[in-house]
Amino acid sequence: MLQLTGITKSYGGHRVLDEVAFAIPEGRLTGFVGGNGAGKTTTMRIMLGVLSRDSGEVTLDGVPITDGDRRSFGYMPEERGLYPKMQVLEQIVYLARLHGFSRADATTRATALLEELGLGERLRDNVETLSLGNQQRAQIAAALVHDPRVLILDEPFSGLDPLAVDVVAGVLKTRAARGVAVLFSSHQLDVVERLCDDLVIIAGGTIRAAGSRDGLRAGFSQRRLELVLGGDAGWLRTEPGVEVVELDGGYAIFDADSDETVQRVLRRAMSTGDVTSFTPRHPSLAQIFKEVIQ
Amino acid sequence: MNTQSFIQSVWLVTGREIGSKLRSKAFLISTGILFALALIGVIWAGVAADSDSRTPVAVTPETAAVVAQLDDVVETTEVASVAEARDLVSSGEVDAALVPGGADPFGYTLISEDSVPTTLVSLLSVSPEAELLTTDTVGEQLRYFIAIAFGAVFFIAALTFGSTIASSVVEEKQTRVVELLISAISTRALLAGKVLGNTILAMGQILGIAAIAMIGLAVTDQGELLGGIGAPIGWFAVFFLFGFILLAALYAAAGATVSRQEDIGSTTMPLTILVMAPYFLVIFFNDNPAVMTLMSYIPFSAPVGMPVRIFVEEAQWWEPFLSLVILLASCVVAIFVSAKIYQNSILRMGARVKLAEALKS
Lengths: 294, 361
Description:
The complex is a heterodimer of chains A (294) and B (361).
Chain A: E1 2-11, E2 14-24, E3 29-34, H1 40-47, E4 55-60, E5 63-64, H2 67-70, E6 73-76, H3 88-98, H4 103-116, H5 132-144, E7 150-153, H6 162-177, E8 181-185, H7 189-195, E9 198-203, E10 206-212, H8 213-220, E11 224-229, E12 242-248, E13 251-256, H9 259-272, E14 275-280, H10 285-293
Parallel strand pairs in A: 3-8, 3-9, 6-7, 7-8
Antiparallel strand pairs in A: 1-2, 1-4, 4-5, 9-10, 11-13, 11-14, 12-13
Chain B: H1 3-22, H2 25-50, E1 55-59, H3 64-67, E2 74-78, H4 82-91, E3 96-100, E4 108-112, H5 118-124, H6 140-174, H7 177-184, H8 187-219, H9 223-256, H10 264-285, H11 289-295, H12 302-311, H13 319-345, H14 355-359
Parallel strand pairs in B: 1-2, 1-3
Antiparallel strand pairs in B: 3-4
């Protein structure tokens, strides 16, 4: 497990990260969500040692990470970066060798990976001649070629069409299933919601929420319920402890102040008529996000 | 990161720098042109030396004996009569004619077209013996030529590869590939690899030019020049090697402070001046021992100043070694300062990073 504790970073008196702490467990996909300038990229760069931190610690299984550990990390920077005038295969081989692989090993791995990503026909082409989507695939190959223990991906889905999103999501899931700790940031909350197991929300340089996706959703549901009745549900408005969010004939969405209120409402609903549906409503990630960063 | 993987990383970066350069058509063409120029220069010098520079003079049987001793500077054409000699002068086939007659002590007259051929006159004159207390070991002109040659080669090679390293640093920064690189290897390994790669390329070019010059001199029978110039060329190579490492490190640091290729010119300007200064200094001061001595100890101009002083035999045997130690020391300082600037600037996109900020820890 990769663990961040008390990470702080300032640029010329402006504190961009304040006591950032969260964990990235192995075998799970952790989504990293935050607005522009919230500190996602800075956090990732510090984890990779690309950027220095003012204070705090990054540990891997409880031990502060070394440069050697970092070489077993895979990284995809937000601003994509490959040499435009270098051949795709050569480039990925070069990066694998920088991570410590022999030339032969690096070539075998790079070829296999690029073929898996659908770039088998383009191995000898210069990166600049590839379409944006294919450059993105090459970029993913660059992050994966050395079989990293930890994958850190900054906006891996931005600029991808829905099909490519699925390809990349598939690759990440496979890696996580093999026991890799995966952290990825994204603006596309729907993608994060669909894909991630765990979630970290950052705003203004501080972590606002962190934990499993389902746990967070449950924690933020605040007893919001959806009720569908045979008759009119207008009586909800006068029920104590209930705040109606939406009401349309027999359909209502409401917030309850306590579990007793929920039970009382259910009993009254059943006594007034047929209850077609009475379900807790989990908020979407977008709703949680809005609420958390306020 | 341990030493072994550091060295490995440095070599990988070095290899990529060299490989990508060797595949660049622009680089191959410019190197080809440079080599061709060196070859043409040597051949031209050989042809010029070979061609007959003797003064053509017409003589009659009576005056032939007068110039018989001047065979190496005078090319004689013997004619039968004075009239024939005059004709050759006016047709321009000879520069002058020696005809019998005229006042003592000579007993002959020099005829020429419209000006007195002073060289010939002085050769034929009787002069008193002159004794010089100090002798110039090397001709003025040769000293000038050698000084400019060293100055120009240093300035062209340093400028070419200095800009190359600066633009390759900016390319990595601009394409953000640097972020990937330094997530795998240390900034220091990356910087060292780039400096080393470009130094090898620059040295290769320099050695190529030197080889062409030497082979060319030998082939065109100018071998005697080689004896005097061998040691200075050797020292030049050594000084160039470390002088270039010094400059390359500084160029890399300068490149790291900007984010766009367009900004390289302004950020490397001070370095460009440093590189060009020795060239202009040797042009103007190659005969001024004080300036040349100073130049031969300042790290940026030592690669030009010291070999020139060695060539004209003004330097004591220990001087190049002392100067080399100074150069090595400044190399170490430059590498540390550059590594710091590089490290602090390489991820900062946008506006040019101020030097004071780049030097902060």
